[in-house]
Structure formats: structure tokens, C-alpha cells
Amino acid sequence: MKQIPKKEIQIIHHHGLKKHHKWMIGGFSTFLIIVIILNSLFIYFLYGQLKVSYNQLENHITELQADTQSKFNQLTENVVQTKNDLNSLSTELGSINQEFSSLKASVGEDFSGIIEEAIKGVVTIKTNVGQGTGFIIDSQGFVVTNAHVLSGGNWIKAINYKQEELNAEFIGYDNTLDIALLKISLTEKYLELGNSNKVQVGTKVIAIGNPLGLQFSVSQGIVSGVHRLGPNSIEAYIQTDAALNPGNSGGPLINTDGEVIGINNFKIGSGESLGFALESNFIKEAVNQIYLKSTNQTLI
Hints:
Elements: H1 6-14, H2 19-106, H3 112-118, E1 122-127, E2 131-136, E3 142-146, H4 147-150, E4 156-159, E5 165-167, E6 169-174, E7 179-183, E8 204-209, E9 217-229, E10 235-240, E11 252-254, E12 260-267, E13 275-279, H5 280-295
Antiparallel strand pairs: 1-2, 1-4, 2-3, 3-7, 4-5, 6-7, 8-9, 8-11, 9-10, 10-13, 11-12, 12-13
């Protein structure tokens, strides 16, 4: 094999990469670097724009959420207010209907609305020796009647307007005012005691009772006098021309507001339309005294 002299090898290496080749390689490298820099700048700019857009979108979403929540809260408040308004309107309508019934009753057009409600709080009182009437005075089922209705009886039953027969527990009585207090277990309606000091002569009233065994009979009349002297020598009786007969004893005397202003007690047989009812303020006093003896507290 023929060897090349070292001098020739050096010449070959010296002339292996020409000058214009170096310029081309350098220019391409510079171009590539510029492209990379520009591309990096573009990506950085694009990322900045995306971040700004994302922040704007996030802020917008937050604002929409806040606005939606505010509108939802407002809607909830409106619904609650509407419900309250409806309840208030219903209460007002109920009050208007009650006032309208009272107005019709006061002018004598119609007592039926008051009677329909009041009769639910009235009961027939039966014993083994007779019967009378009573009325419920509170939601616990306490019943007031005349003490003489129970006289001589060995057991007591109460019959409500639905004709349900209920056991009646004897609590106590006031012999002077002829008041007895009973307790039944089932109560649907009770009657409010009015202020008998406000009762005026001429006031229209109804008496509910069981005259001669005719259950839940109603008679209408007016107040003929107040603070009349009774058989106990106490000026505690309302005089009325509403018809009272045996069986009415212990029943309520009711005004045009549906309040009990007296408990029907007795009549003068020798005269016409001379009925008497113990005034409601005395009923309250007697009931509280009876209840106080067994519980050390008042009832109404």
C-alpha cells in the first residue's frame, strides 16, 4: 500500500471546509436562534393573553354567581313575603267574615254563623236522675254546668254535638253560685267567656240548651236587665226574654260576638219570658275558686 506523505495530509485537512460553507452554517444557526427566540416570545405573549382572558372570564363568572345568588335571595324573600301576605290576607278574611257574621247577628238578619260555631262547644249533661246542659270553657276539656243539674246523680255523661257520649269527671262545685266544674277527654271547640260588666240592656242574645230533652235547641232574645238579684241574694244575674225551659239549665247565654255572657240558671214560672243567667264574671270567679282547691292555681 502506498503511503501519503504527511505534508499532503495537512493540505487536504486545510482545504476540507471552505469559507462560504462556514458563512452558510453560521447564518443558518443565527436564523434558527432568532426563530426560536421569536417563537418563545410569541408563546409567552400568547400565554399572557390567555391568562388575562382566563382572569377576565373567572371574574365574570364570579360576578354572575354573585348576581345569581343575589337574585335567588331576593326571589326567596319575595316568596316568603308573598306567603306571609297570603297568611295575613287569610287572617283578615277570617276576621272580616267573623265581623260580618256578628254584624248580621246584631241587626237581626242572621245568627246562624255564630250558632254553628258555638254549638260545637256545648254538651248535654246526663245523670241517672236527669239531664241539663253544659259548655266547654278551655282546650283541656273543662266543662261548666249548674250544680243542681248533677244533684242526686251517681254518674255523669256528656254528649257533644256529634252525639258522642263521653265520661265526665267531677272536679268540684260552688253551691252559692250553683256552678259545677267537670272534665271531659275530647274537645273540639270551647267557648270564650266575655266581660259581663260590658253587657247592656237590649243586647241580642241566644240561649243554647236541651229544653225538655230536645238536644241543642236554640232560642233568641234580648237582655232585659243586668245585675238582677238572685235567689242567693247576690246581684249577679242577667235577665233575658230568651225562652228557657227545664233542660236549659247550665247552658250558655251568648252575645252577637259568640262570647258567653252568662250561664242559664232559672226562670220565674209565674211570668212570661223571665229567664235569668249568672253573669260570666261570676262564672269565672266560681270556676277559679273550684279549680284552686284541687290544684292551687286558677284555670281561666
